[in-house]
Design goal:
This protein is an all-alpha fold. Helices cover 88% and strands 0% of the residues. It is rod-shaped.
C-alpha cells in the first residue's frame, strides 16, 4: 500500500494533468472577465438589433 502511494506521488503524468487544468481554469476565468466587460456592449449592438428585426408573431 505504501509503495503504491509513493509511486503515485512520483508519477509525472499527474503533474501535467494539473498543469492542463490550471491552463483551462485561467482561460475560463479570462472568458468570464471578458464577458463581464464586453457583455453589455455586445448585447446592445448585436442581440437587440437582431431581436428587433424579427417580426412579432
Amino acid at each position: 500500500m505504501k509503495s503504491g502511494f509513493i509511486i503515485f506521488l512520483l508519477d509525472e503524468n499527474g503533474q501535467s494533468v494539473v498543469e492542463y487544468g490550471l491552463i483551462i481554469a485561467l482561460i475560463a476565468l479570462a472568458a468570464i472577465i471578458a464577458l463581464g466587460i464586453f457583455g453589455a456592449a455586445v448585447r446592445s449592438s448585436l442581440y437587440d438589433k437582431s431581436t428587433n428585426s424579427i417580426p412579432n408573431v
